[in-house]
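User: I'm curious whether this sequence folds into something compact or stays loose and floppy. Could you predict its structure so I can see for myself?
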Amino acid sequence: MKLYRLDPTRDSRWNEFVQAHPKASVFHSVGWLSALRDTYGYRTVVFTTSSPTEELRNGVVFCQVNSWLTGRRLVSLPFSDHCDPLCDSQEELCFMMRYLRSSLNHEQLKYVELRPTSASFDRLGEAVGFLPVARYLLHRLDLRPDLDQVFQGLDKDCVRRRIRRADRAGLVEESGATDALLRDFYDLFKVTRSRHHLPPVPYAWFQNLIRCQGEALEIRVAYWDEKAIAAILTLRHKGVLYYKYGCSDIRYKRLAAMPWLLWRAAVAAKSNGAVEFDLGRTQEDNPGLLAFKNHWVQRPSLLVYWNCPGDPTLDSIYGRKLRIAKRVFSWMPDSLLAMAGRLIYRHIG
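Assistant: Here's the prediction. I'll summarize afterward.
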């Protein structure tokens, strides 16, 4: 076998392959990869055993992160909850993983990282020298049953009752991807990140996502008495809706706008043919968010990140430098937090 490289944002075969492959997600899409490239300057690359003249039969996509602060590495993919290797042959995948491991020295890489959803990767990962470096829980709500059945499967007190409370409160929802909605979303996003002592993701990231994802992206904002009090950003790929970002004004928590928005997003997605609502990754030591999502999906799956040679991933709580940075952020005023976000995120992907 021989290994080839291609640029997934320029090679039309990649988009066709992603649309057809059953394991492909929104994070494999050209839109997502283009937004990562345009915002953070990452070079996107796919490794495949298919030659340039062949139809693609496999591919593992990465972003090459070149940082003077955190090192040079291949990550599949930065700021993405998960990203499965799209390879149906264990033999071909093993060949690619061994090649990537061997490339550490001659390409001067700090590490190579993968974020597969499948537990079947465990045995293969260890066999080719990859080690688990981070653990999350992945909540995915099945939308295939009828809507009443889906609703009855949600926690009675913490979800269903709160959704009804929001209905009675007279919340108003606006959805789309307009500049006005993005501004309202980002204002709430900055407040939420500040509450958690974290810098906000750059505004340009969301602008690029809207431009690159097109109709696959939707912002939903809940208003009460004409004031924006909560917002979510979702993405759509084939039959799956992805909840990627959420934010709220904690002063209006009693109005239950967040579960209300998520449920309305799920209802709209199901009416348009979605069969699953991916609520994203959750750190095991985040009890508040974990409890919130457990009320939607009682049995989340384990999501393990792997890399070679086994360095802690920077895009998680397990990165030492990120833990130190969080302590610094807790002392920063909001204006400095926003500036820090524009400067550092490209280094921690």
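Summary: The domain at 139-302 is CATH 3.40.630.30 (Aminopeptidase). The longest strand covers residues 131-142.
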